[in-house]
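Readers of this paper often ask what the protein records in our data store actually look like. Such a record has a labelled line for the sequence and another for the backbone structure tokens. Nothing more is needed to write down the fold, since each code stands for a local backbone conformation. The remainder of this section carries one protein's record, kept here as part of the documentation.
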Amino acid sequence: MDLRKRSGFTERSRVRKKMERLVLSQDTRFDNISVPAILECGMRSIVLFFFFLVVNFSSDKQYFDSSEVRQSNGLLLLRKNNAKLNGILRAYYKSGEVRYKLQYRDGIKHGPSVEYERNGSVKRKKLYKNGKPFSPKTDRVRSSQNRNEVVRSQKKDQNPKPPATLLPDPTPTNSIGMKFALIPAGKFTMGAPKWEQEKAYKQCVEQGEKESNCKSWHIEAEEEHQVEIAQPFYLGKYEVTQGQWKEVMGWDSWKDSDEFKKNENHPNKFPLEGSSYPVVFISWEDAQEFIKKLNGREGCSNPVGDAYMRPYDLKSGCYRLPTEAEWEYASRAGTKTVNYWGNDENGACIYGNVGDRSLAKLSKFRAYRTILRELYPEMLGPVVHQCNDGYSFLAKVGSFKPNAWGIYDTIGNVWEWTLDWYSSTYYKRSPAKDPVNLTKGSYRVNRGGSWSNYARDCRSAVRISDSPGLRSGFLGFRLLRTP
């Protein structure tokens, strides 16, 4: 039989001839295709092939991401497009049980590695650190240098040395009921920043003082400088009270003082009396007599004579006035603001007894009101603190909130005598460590402001001076005790 007569073959031939006629009619003969075109097409195909090969290879085997999970050859892979392998990689048996659990950090083994049986039990467990097996036991030392260090540290731990200074009681109380707070050693910025100095200077001039005096008091005397308090010390939590004074000295500080008796303008009912009120009408020299008697009463035989001659040589348990730097350091209690409660001067009525609106109550005490108006007319004006602390005169010690170290009334109530002689330029040349001005001058320094003072004098940085023999109803003191 002739195969050409088969219908299928005949049909295929007919279709082929028809397609040839169609191609020829469109003038698209294959011999019109050039060799460069063929090569360009081939190169593009090769480039695309390698591109998809690299993308598939990198996405399958190098990068992991917790957002995309897929199953491949029994491994559960996490793909991350922009970082090395981090986290836990798990390998599975074909049946679905976990076979390995490996933990990686930046592409290397780091952390616990566990191999499991098919039933889920742990077959082997290792701990890796930066790609190397790691044992957490401290007694395994891999080098002689590390071994010696471990031995030395173990011996040191077995025989600890006692601390150089033992301070078992952070708040001791002495025989007359004085309570003390432990002040740690440290460094701080003493003085006031420029903006605070300029504000105090402006207020001083506006209140009628000479510009030269205001500059000396608030610009020169309050310049900022760094100070180190090298040793911890105890400072009285409260100002010395009238009751404590009388117990040691045997006489009333204000009622029996010559200044009070000869000044007929002070009425007998002037509200300064009470065993819990701060002692007033005390000069710097009176305070030294009190310290001598208290040291003798407490069994402190002072080897250096007067407590103000060589203050840092005092024996443990002895008393003296704080230096000016120690006073400000304890008053600030680690703060850098105008006062230990912040920069708001009208917040003083919560933390101290200052010159405030309660001074209006002075009308009840006509004689003392007359003195204030003659000597301190600005006290009854708008320059006082715009708040009300509830006290026109003295307040009992501890009536207001303390600072962060448990010290009360460092701002307000009474000015407090310190150890130093006054010099407005002393801190330009003073040592940074434990400064104290023992060079004899005309005035001693007192700090902190009183119940009658306005904002510019009730600050942590303010310094004033008075004659060592001066007694007044604004002056008192508190004590430092050596640890």
User: Anything to note?
Assistant: Residues 64-156 form one domain. The chain has a mean pLDDT of 74. Residues 113 and 365 are 86 Å apart (CA to CA). The longest helix spans residues 35-61.
